[in-house]
Every structure is written in structure tokens, then in C-alpha cells.
Write a structure and sequence with these properties.
Layout (H helix, E strand, L loop, with lengths): L1 H6 L12 H4 L6 H28 L15 H12 L3 H10 L8 H7 L1
Length: about 110
């Protein structure tokens, strides 16, 4: 997971326009490319969520007393760090455009045989 976050530093954190023909390069089909990007974005999202929950679990308390509940500075910093990261769809799109996403289509492979 740290690999995804470390590599996401050069990815813009806002939506940017994309050149659609570039998205078709790997698959020759825009919709297939978008489906691949969507699946990769879901994988990234799950990984980021698991890492965030693991980091926040370190600060979890077993008490339910409202008087003992307080805002933990480290939890706030961790949460704000994850809020500033690029969205998983932006990370997945950049990975796809850079050729870092492995994908295959079994139906196309069967048709070629």
C-alpha cells in the first residue's frame, strides 16, 4: 500500500481533462479501458481504506465513557493526510496510462485461439 501512496505524489489531486484516444491505446476500446480503470480504482480504494483503518485502530480505546473520549491529534493528522491524497480513480487512470496495470480479457484470448 505504501507503494501506491508514495507513487501518488506526482498525480494531480483534482480532476483534469483526458485525451480519450490515449485511453484506448491498451485495449482499442474506450469502454473496456474505463472498466479496467474502474476495477483498479476499486482495488486502490479498498487498500487505502484498510490501511487507514489499521492506522486508526492503533488509537482505538476500549472505553465507552463519554468523559474519557477526546480528540486525538494523531488521528486527526492521519485522517487529513488521507483526505489530501489523490482520489483512487485519478491514481488508477495514471497507472493505466503509464502501462502499470496488468489486465487480460479471457474472451478475446479464446477468440484468438
Amino acid at each position: 500500500m505504501a507503494n501506491i501512496i508514495n507513487n501518488s505524489q506526482n498525480i494531480p489531486d483534482t480532476t483534469i481533462p483526458r485525451d480519450l484516444p490515449k485511453l484506448e491505446n491498451g485495449t482499442h476500446n474506450l469502454y473496456e479501458s474505463l472498466a479496467i480503470i474502474a476495477k483498479r480504482a476499486n482495488q486502490i480504494s479498498v487498500q487505502m481504506k484498510e490501511e487507514l483503518h489499521a492506522k486508526l485502530a492503533e488509537f482505538a480505546t476500549d472505553t465507552d465513557n463519554l468523559e474519557e473520549v477526546f480528540e486525538n491529534r494523531e488521528q486527526i493528522e492521519i485522517a487529513s493526510y488521507y483526505e489530501r491524497l489523490p482520489k483512487p480513480t485519478l491514481i488508477a487512470t495514471e497507472e493505466f496510462l503509464e502501462g502499470k496495470v496488468y489486465f487480460r480479457n479471457p474472451s478475446k484470448e479464446d477468440a484468438e485461439k
